[in-house]
Amino acid sequence: MKKIFGGPAICLDRSDINTDEIIPAKYLTEVTKEALTPYILEDLILDGFDPKSEKLKSARVVITRDNFGCGSSREHAPWVFEVNNIHTIIAESYARIFRQNMFNCGMLAIELKKEQIDALFTLAKKGAVTVEIDLPAQKVVAAAGDKKESFSFAISPFDKALVEAGGWVEFADARY
Amino acid sequence: MGQTTAEKIFKAHLRDEPFPGTRVLDIDRVLCHEITTPVAIADLQWRGKDRVFDKTKIKAVIDHVTPSKDSKTALQAKMLRDWARRHDINDFFDIGHNGVCHAIFPEKGYIRPGFTVIMGDSHTCTHGAFGAFAAGVGTTDLEVGMLKGVCAFREPKTIRVNLNGKLAKGVYAKDAILYVIGQLGVNGATDRVIEFHGPVVEVMTMDARMTLCNMAIEAGGTSGICQPDAVTVDYLWPFIQDEFASKEAALADYSQWRADADADYDRVLDFDLSAIGPQVTFDYKPDCVKPVSALAGTRVDQVYIGSCTNGRLEDLRVAAEILKGKQIAATVRGIVSPATPKIFQEAMQEGLIDIFMQAGFCVTNPTCGACLGMSNGVLAEGEVCASTTNRNFSGRMGKGGMVHLMSPATAAATALTGVITDAATLS
Ligand code: SF4
């Protein structure tokens, strides 16, 4: 399925959000991605965050801090975002396996500098943030009310190729 | 310029470099368990590609929830079992023969110096204890590994960690790695390989080296790696004696994977471990580490000894020595889970199982179970567990539970008193 990048964003203002918080191990007994849908971020420890909120349901982008997705290798973590139509995450940094899993699924794990992430969180104080992504130009534009922030992002040519191919299985199948 | 161990392994396994900085490697071992593999199997079937690249290089085990606890886990086990049979995977371990993946695969001699190893499990870094490059991957990487025998990585930047000095009596590999993670931080080694060197590692057994490498991921590391040496050869000898004329010949061959003296490291860190005592975690991150004395007296409801970190024979011996002839506190539930059937049997023959049972421990079959809060010892809201496992995330052993990570010795001492206790303080 073609991934859609950009849209309304939800901000998770914390570092080191781990895979157990994104999708608890007790749901790893599911053998389809779709079955994970209701359990997104169920155990996230974050003041004022409600995993059942409309804001999360309508979100298409997550904006967060440092070392996102640390912990387990479970691809259930990107999948639970995927089945909730969140195909873009913007963070200061990621745990390696989570980041690779995102690209392997043809999803975008964008890295921005700390000051840029700070600017996005400041922007979020002005109102609901909507994000536009231009992958070929490697640009993020975030808007809230009449305020805008726009940044270029770096992505390795390999990760970009994975997103364009639709994921690692497609890429590897065509090549090896 | 010399090379690190990971660089040597990458060079020897390079299949493709589709873009600068991306290395697609040939993989020697693709390891599978029943939690992360079934979705890969289902996807391959859906794509009409239900094949494996080389059945001799694929090893599989049902370990996370075994025997199955409900219909869903039974289905996961069945999907893996049916797939293993369909593809004639000889090295597949099911009920009666199964144990925790990162304990059973090395025990069978499947991991060798210089190998590339992937598994859909973050603690795959354990296998780096043999001088291999071993990385945890997600289900898609696993799927491509099963089908094509390749996996893509970035260039292997390496942090060299020199563990200097000598561990004091009562201080173990678990304390050493907890201490190092406390210093590095949970993302201190992200996108890096941690290469362990120094006198502390040189005198470690393979069991202890596996404990060390097991937790490299808790600092974000791609793989932990120890240098192959005579200890490695001794461990592997029963499996390799037909391949080499002598242990010396094996050592000479495996030495090709040792890092060069002039290798280029991203960082070099020196830790003198002579002065550290037993360590324990607090809070919900594995880098929240303090000396046991700082948390002494903290009440616990459960003590868990087991897992791929500390469920090996050496660990059980240390705990049993402390428990021998004593009773655990009435307020504590003690659970011990030998990591493999072989370990279980040897522990029985040595009388360790008797000691655990007489002390009031429940002995479970080899399984991951309580370690990830799926079965065999899940915590209730507000409960506290002293655990020899590797992760203290919120909810890890049960929603609302708190996990304190520690060595088997500290866990055993804690079981006796019901509060976090340094074994050295027991009379
Ligand atoms: S024992 Fe725990 S950490 Fe090790 S493989 Fe099993 S669930 Fe993972």
Secondary structure topology:
The complex is a heterodimer of chains A (176) and B (427).
Chain A: E1 7-12, H1 19-22, H2 54-58, E2 61-64, H3 76-82, E3 88-91, H4 96-104, E4 108-111, H5 114-124, E5 130-134, E6 139-144, E7 147-152, H6 157-165, H7 168-175
Parallel strand pairs in A: 1-2, 2-3, 3-4
Antiparallel strand pairs in A: 1-5, 5-6, 6-7
Chain B: H1 5-13, E1 14-16, E2 22-26, E3 29-33, H2 37-46, E4 58-61, H3 71-86, E5 92-93, H4 101-107, E6 116-119, E7 133-136, H5 139-148, E8 150-154, E9 157-164, H6 173-184, E10 192-197, H7 199-202, H8 206-214, E11 223-226, H9 230-240, H10 247-254, E12 267-272, E13 279-281, E14 289-291, H11 292-295, E15 302-306, H12 307-310, H13 313-323, E16 333-337, H14 341-349, H15 352-359, E17 361-363, E18 384-387, E19 402-405, H16 408-417
Parallel strand pairs in B: 3-4, 3-6, 4-5, 6-7, 9-10, 9-12, 10-11, 15-16, 15-18, 16-17, 18-19
Antiparallel strand pairs in B: 1-2, 2-8, 13-14
Helix pairs in contact in B: 2-5, 6-8, 9-10, 13-15, 13-16
Bound molecules: iron/sulfur cluster.
Task: Describe this entry's structure for a reader.
Chain A is an alpha/beta fold. Chain A has a single domain, classed as Aconitase, domain 4 (Alpha-Beta Barrel), CATH 3.20.19. Chain A has helices spanning 19-22, 54-58, 76-82, 96-104, 114-124, 157-165, 168-175, and strands spanning 7-12, 61-64, 88-91, 108-111, 130-134, 139-144, 147-152. Chain A has a 7-stranded mixed sheet. In chain B, strands 5-4-3-6-7 form a 5-stranded parallel sheet. A 5-stranded parallel sheet of chain B has the order 17-16-15-18-19. Chain B starts with a helix and ends in a 10-residue tail after the last helix. The chains are: A alpha/beta (176), B alpha/beta (427). Chains A and B meet through α4, α6 and α7 of A and α2, α3, α5 and β8 of B. The complex binds iron/sulfur cluster.
